[in-house]
Amino acid sequence: MTSAAFLLIATFLVVLLLLAHPLGRLLAHFIDDRPLLASVEKALWRLCGTGKGEMGWQHYLLAILLFNALGFVLLFTLLLAQGALPLNPQHLPGLSWDLALNTAISFVTNTNWQAYSGESTMSYFSQMVGLTGQNFFSAATGIAVAFALIRGFTRRETQQLGNAWRDLTRITLWVLLPIGLLLALFNLSQGVIQNLDGYLTLTTLEGGKQTLAMGPVASQEAIKMLGTNGGGFFNANSAHPFENPTSLSNFVQMLSIFLIPSALCFAFGHSARDNRQGHMLLWAMSLMFIAAVAVVMWAEFRGNPHFLTLGADSAINMEGKESRFGILNSSLFAVITTAASCGAVNAMHDSFTALGGMIPMWLMQLGEVVFGGVGAGLYGMLLFVLLAVFIAGLMIGRTPEYLGKKIEVREMKLTAIAILITPSLVLLGAALAMMTDAGRGAMANPGAHGFSEVLYAVSSAANNNGSAFAGLSANSPFWNLLLAFCMLTGRFGIIIPVLAIAGSLAAKKIQPVGNGTLPTHGALFVSLLVGTVILVGALTFIPALAIGPVAEHLQLISR
To answer: What pTM does this model have?
Structure first.
């Protein structure tokens, strides 16, 4: 097991970094506001009235909020009116108002939480135009915010952070669409379906009837992974053979999730004119990622200790996992999808062991900064970089600096607000659910495991992940509204202070490096950054985890 696990992790990271490096250079090109095809872009800006002007952080924020508000209104309306719209061969009705609200907010915030079964709820028109379209737009939003923050670090004495409309257009046209098209064609080559046929009714060998859902799956699957969205066409998500048919498609899907988050780290180093800064982020993320994968693989191979006493081996721990992927690939996929803000799953997390399920939950609770979602992972990790620099400054009695910019009271207040948003949503949301009959009534399991289901759901929503522990009947007005609030606040409650920090930093001078300047590219700072991320996560969530997965694990080994 050890050698196979090491080979799988090493192969994944090597291929990932080889692909991410050239993409990082392209993203840095856009961060520096250089056109890719100048004549095409010039015609686009003239057509759209974008102009050459740049925006301050308030204007940039307003553009981002308006863009997403419009997307929400259109998607919400589409879902309500689904029954009267075309491309609906199964004649599926419109969604209830609370489910439509939850789903629209979910896809606008890049969460893609699904309180419904896709094949029995969504028409092809809703999947193609509504959900897939929003997958592009929400991913572009996160990357654009990361662009603005990088400019805040790298520009000096200016109020300008770029043009949000140009950033959103370039990201969508030159990054998401071309790569998404290539991934869609690859999906087709592996057997992922792509059609507009009605559902097939087949006769089984036993003479029974079975319905096979059809639809335009390959195209949605591509941007679902690339944009770290995660909303599956089918209820079984990437465990469904029509979405993820082969081991090769499974490996490429995992690469797709981390591709842009990794590339943004390289882009950050290029834009800062110091590649070591991007490498520092990659080292910190990779170390936490490898440790998380190792724990989950160990826990899943160890399995249920009571089965081991009966003479069984680790193969018995295949409950909730696809036989074509096995324990190693299921464990790796679970860590990747929760380290990034991607809700795609190829196994049932609810069937993992207590410790195997705790790690994916904790990765979300850390703020999904271990690579994280497209854009969101980078700006989330940079918040922890500011916190780590501040802690180091306290220890040596010096005003903290990062990339030559002094980190002062305003930046630290905004950083604290941004870091505390999601923990507050998770803990208060879980407490509210456990205090109310409507919240507890959705739990399918009692005791510590039932609490873990609730904690996982709120953690997934507040951190814009979208995966579920299952066992929780979340399609009710209470849960739809609670999780919608968590998703909306967890997304834009962080974007607002992040852009405010970007604006504050962009206006500062760049200080020359002195003898007392803390190097932020070496092993010492990587250790400090990793320790800061883990410490904040530990202090915040260990009490809640202790009465959920930790208690379940102790109960299991004590029997």
So the answer is: 0.95
